[in-house]
């Protein structure tokens, strides 16, 4: 029977990896072109990146090259995940005792851990991970260590996969079809009132009858219900089809990711805030605003916030789809002669992101973030209401 012999350095590496994965929710990341290094990531951790390096570092030149390599890899991670700051804990296991570790980058904290002693004394590590000494596997070695570490990491991975499955797995969708049905029903009502002419353009008086949003009625006559009804009305068949297609594509995703209660709340709050900002910007123009696009932009803002929190998995979609769609549609709205209510779009976009922040994202949002989201959203709405109704 073959005997498995592990050297002290490998045991230390396994114990550190076991701790960071099972106790601190870090996940391994694949880094090409490295040897004898382990890279771990937790976007919510005290250090975004933990790197464990067992390579020999005997002189200052090797240490400088090591820092250069870390900075290069961290820069790639920042670009891939759309991150501005990536704090990194660089754990070195094999360093010349006479070599002084100097901090060359404030975002990269290099510390040395002895291969012969896993009693962590470094104050920076203890401040970030105060329970590390209690949670490290210290009395387990050899084959037992391999078995225990493998079992615990597999269990943790299984739990993580189940959480992701709850978020991303396909669910029964019915809120989005209901919203689309309401929009179609109101357009059919306009068609009944105006006849076939409504296909190319709904009469402005019909839009007002069906709850269009305009300063004179919504603010002047205090017909607040128009802030809800306007988002289910549309000005033409083309307007309806474009918005309903967008709502179907974006809405079904968010209804799956966030759940039905959060989704419908974000939709309505975004539409209301978009309507308020539209009234504020165009208060003297007399325009009648209709359409679901303010609420849809709110869903885009929500998807942007959600995607940022899952940027390890959705960074490609953020960069190639979500952000370009937002920028392109806002840019089109600023073109002359387009007759697009961009104020409504911007108001909905901001409200959607803030409302998602306030409601929180399962497994990702912290209580502090949700509180800040509530404060910012209520503050945004309060300013709009005050400027429109009380000033």
Structural write-up:
- With 391 residues, the protein is mostly helical.
- It has two domains: 8-168; 175-390, Up-down Bundle (Rhomboid-like fold).
- The chain is 60% helix and 6% strand.
- The protein contains 15 helices and five strands.
- It has helices at residues 8-22, 60-81, 123-128, 132-135, 142-168, 175-194, 204-209, 215-220, 226-229, 237-258, 260-281, 293-309, 311-333, 342-359, 367-390; strands spanning 27-28, 37-41, 49-53, 88-92, 108-112.
- A five-stranded mixed beta sheet has the order 1-2-3-4-5, sandwiched between helices.
- Strand 1 and strand 2 (37-41) form a beta hairpin.
- Helix 11 packs antiparallel against helix 14.
- The protein is elongated, with a radius of gyration of 28 Å.
Key words describing this protein structure:
Rhomboid-like fold; 15 helices; 391 residues; five-stranded mixed sheet; mainly alpha; 2 domains
Identify low-pLDDT runs.
Answer: none
The CATH topology of the largest domain comes to Rhomboid-like fold
Q: What order do the strands of the largest sheet run in, or round the barrel if closed?
A: 1-2-3-4-5
Instruction: Name the helicity range.
Output: 55-70%
Strands, count: 5
CATH superfamily of the largest domain: Rhomboid-like
Q: Biggest β-sheet, characterized?
A: 5 strands, mixed
β-strand percent reads 5-15%
> How many individual domains?
2
Oligomer: single chain
Terminal-residue CA separation: 86 Å
**Structural class designation:** mainly alpha
Shape call: elongated
Order of helices and strands: HEEEHEEHHHHHHHHHHHHH
**Quick check: average pLDDT?**
88
Our count of helices gives 15
């Amino acid at each position: 029977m073959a005997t498995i012999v592990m050297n002290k350095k490998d045991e230390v590496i396994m114990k550190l990896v076991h701790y960071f994965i099972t106790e601190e929710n870090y996940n391994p990341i694949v880094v090409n072109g490295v040897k004898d290094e382990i890279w771990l990531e937790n976007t919510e951790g005290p250090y975004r990146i933990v790197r464990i390096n067992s390579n020999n570092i005997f002189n200052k030149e090797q240490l400088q090259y090591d820092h250069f390599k870390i900075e290069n890899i961290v820069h790639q991670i920042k670009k891939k995940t759309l991150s501005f700051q990536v704090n990194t804990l660089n754990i070195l296991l094999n360093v010349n005792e006479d070599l002084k570790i100097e901090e060359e980058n404030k975002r990269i904290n290099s510390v040395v851990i002895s291969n012969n002693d896993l009693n962590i004394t470094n104050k920076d590590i203890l401040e970030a991970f105060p329970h590390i000494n209690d949670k490290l596997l210290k009395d387990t070695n050899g084959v037992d260590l391999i078995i225990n570490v493998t079992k615990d990491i597999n269990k943790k991975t299984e739990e993580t996969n189940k959480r992701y499955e709850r978020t991303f797995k396909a669910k029964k969708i019915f809120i989005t079809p209901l919203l689309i049905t309401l929009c179609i029903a109101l357009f059919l009502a306009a068609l009944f009132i105006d006849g076939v002419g409504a296909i190319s353009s709904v009469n402005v008086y019909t839009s007002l009858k069906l709850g269009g949003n305009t300063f004179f009625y919504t603010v002047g006559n205090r017909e607040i219900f128009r802030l809800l009804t306007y988002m289910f009305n549309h000005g033409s068949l083309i307007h309806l089809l474009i918005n309903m297609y967008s709502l179907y594509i974006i809405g079904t995703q968010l209804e799956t990711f966030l759940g039905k209660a959060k989704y419908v709340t974000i939709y309505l709050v975004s539409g209301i805030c978009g309507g308020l900002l539209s009234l504020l910007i165009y208060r003297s123009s007399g325009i009648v605003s209709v359409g679901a696009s303010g609420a849809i932009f709110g869903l885009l803002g929500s998807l942007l916030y959600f995607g940022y929190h899952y940027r390890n998995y959705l960074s490609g979609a953020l960069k190639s789809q979500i952000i370009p769609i937002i920028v392109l549609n806002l840019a089109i709205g600023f073109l002359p002669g387009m007759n697009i209510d961009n104020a409504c779009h911007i108001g909905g976009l901001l409200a959607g992101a803030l409302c998602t922040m306030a409601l929180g994202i399962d497994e990702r949002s912290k209580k502090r973030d949700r509180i800040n989201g509530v404060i910012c959203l209520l503050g945004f709405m309060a300013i709009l209401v005050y400027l429109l109704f009380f000033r």
